[in-house]
């Protein structure tokens, strides 16, 4: 992969939703490049289009118009099966809801994606324990979600997102259900993964403290990019 090319390139993206007789413009001719290793926040009021843009980049939703390239692959030209394969191997997702499987342990939740990828049981266990150690939860590997705090569950979700070694992680309101201390721990973890492993992060958020942690802040209004600027990141205070 040529790292001089952007990891994400969006051109003239448009997405409309129909609500009764009304048409809602969620994305309005959006152009966006994100370089490998960037640490980006997407902000804006509810309905500004940030989650729609994140879902389009992740191949979870198809735009009505325009093109998206992720790691050199044109998402708008991929079949549903090819999109699923790209998401499985190349993109990590972290959501507001942790989306952990209640009956599985932390290790089993992290291993699940690798099982779908076809890794052996021994490989899955070794990798799952390694990434749980990376997020500070190797001593909680045998606990189920109900036995973990919200912050711990979100860190398991992060471990699951990075287990397959993606170079891109998309996070949608990842701190929304967390207290201030857990949110600060999560953003410190994202920062470390970005700086030490070069993982590209794009984070949709309402939280100004999360925005302040990133090195590039994009603000959306009415489906368009309103501002896009670099910034000096500030660690979140617990």
UniProtKB/TrEMBL annotation:
A UniProt-annotated Pfam family: ABC_tran
Species: Congregibacter variabilis
GO MF, any single term: ATP binding
Protein name, UniProt field: ABC transporter ATP-binding protein
Domain ABC transporter span(s) in chain numbering: 8-238
Keyword line: ATP-binding, Nucleotide-binding, Transport
């Amino acid at each position: 992969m040529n790292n001089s090319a952007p990891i994400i390139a969006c051109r003239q993206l448009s997405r409309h939703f129909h609500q009764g007789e009304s048409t809602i413009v969620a994305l309005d001719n959006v152009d966006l490049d994100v370089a490998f290793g960037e640490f980006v926040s997407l902000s804006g009021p509810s309905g500004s289009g940030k989650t729609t843009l994140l879902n389009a980049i992740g191949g979870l939703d198809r735009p009505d118009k325009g093109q998206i390239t992720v790691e050199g692959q044109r998402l708008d030209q991929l079949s549903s099966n090819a999109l699923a394969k790209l998401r499985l191997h190349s993109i990590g997702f972290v959501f507001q809801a942790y989306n952990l499987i209640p009956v599985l342990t932390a290790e089993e939740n992290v291993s699940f994606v690798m099982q779908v990828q076809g890794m052996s049981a021994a490989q899955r266990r070794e990798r799952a324990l390694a990434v749980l150690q990376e997020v500070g939860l190797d001593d909680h590997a045998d606990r189920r979600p109900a036995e973990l705090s919200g912050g711990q569950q979100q860190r398991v979700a992060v471990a699951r997102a990075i287990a397959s070694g993606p170079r891109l992680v998309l996070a949608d309101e990842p701190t929304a259900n967390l207290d201030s201390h857990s949110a600060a721990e999560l953003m410190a973890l994202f920062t470390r993964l970005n700086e030490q492993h070069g993982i590209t992060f794009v984070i949709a958020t309402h939280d100004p403290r999360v925005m302040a942690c990133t090195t590039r802040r994009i603000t959306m209004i009415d489906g368009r990019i309103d501002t896009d600027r670099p910034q000096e990141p500030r660690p979140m205070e617990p």
